[in-house]
Design brief:
It contains 3 helices and 18 strands. By secondary structure, it is mainly beta. A hairpin with a 4-residue loop joins strand 12 and strand 13.
């Protein structure tokens, strides 16, 4: 009986849909150096022990060290294409304790997002660990990539968060965009590069649109090549 139970536990531990949805490393954005007040800016998060990319320019690997309640995060060179490998480091591994407030200076998760001309505020991140689901503040604009087609919070692989009225310069489109939630609906406005003269708000709700995977290691190559196994989701938390 003990052998059977042990075998079942091993199966559960190595089953992607169960094991790899349990712990999320969260970088919650703040303007204050002690991470006080309400979250402000663009935040990032993802599954532990999973190699992924936010911008197809750099890969990340987050780990949780339970013995001292800390995390490590490492940036790797991106080889391009849909499958990412965390093999060649492009920066030394960094360590932070859960709850620490760390400077975001030089820490670029998504190179597509830049501060607009009007913004010069340094960003800080509070490190949090979400157990079972991401650590996301209420009334936050969320862009997530999920495993499966149901878009459950527990199936999220990686995600980006935008606090209300966050403005970023999106280099892909050459414009400043403002992100916010309106009655539970994710909205954006395109603005001038100084953040003024914004266009009419646009509803950005997107529910479980199939997408190609762009992360690695936790599923077999045959499985990861199937677009239908992954989905893209935009919503207000």
């Amino acid at each position: 009986m003990k052998i059977i139970i042990s075998s079942l536990l091993l199966i559960l531990l190595f089953n992607f849909s169960n094991a790899y949805q349990k712990l999320y490393i969260n970088f919650v954005p703040y303007e204050s150096s002690d991470c006080s007040g309400n979250p402000s800016g663009v935040g990032y998060g993802g599954l532990v022990d999973t190699c992924f990319t936010f911008d197809n320019s750099r890969n990340w690997l987050f780990k949780y060290l339970e013995q001292d309640d800390s995390i490590t995060f490492t940036k790797y060179n991106n080889r391009g294409g849909v499958t990412e490998l965390c093999e060649i480091k492009s920066m030394p591994t960094q360590t932070a304790s859960v709850g620490d407030c760390i400077s975001g200076k030089g820490l670029i998760f998504n190179s597509f997002y830049q501060q607009p001309e009007s913004g010069s505020q340094e960003i800080y991140y509070q490190v949090q660990v979400g157990k079972g689901e991401p650590f996301i503040a209420p009334n936050t604009y969320v862009v997530s990539y999920n495993y499966g087609s149901d878009c459950n919070d527990s199936d999220i692989i990686l995600y980006e968060t935008f606090s209300n009225q966050t403005q970023v310069y999106v280099s892909t489109f050459g414009s400043v965009y403002e992100f916010y939630c309106l009655d539970g609906t994710p909205m954006t406005m395109a603005c001038e590069n100084d953040g003024s003269d914004c266009s009419n708000p646009q509803d950005q709700s997107m529910s479980c649109d199939p997408t190609s995977p762009f992360f690695n290691t936790t599923v077999s190559p045959d499985t990861s090549s199937s677009d239908s196994l992954y989905s893209f989701n935009t919503y207000c938390y």
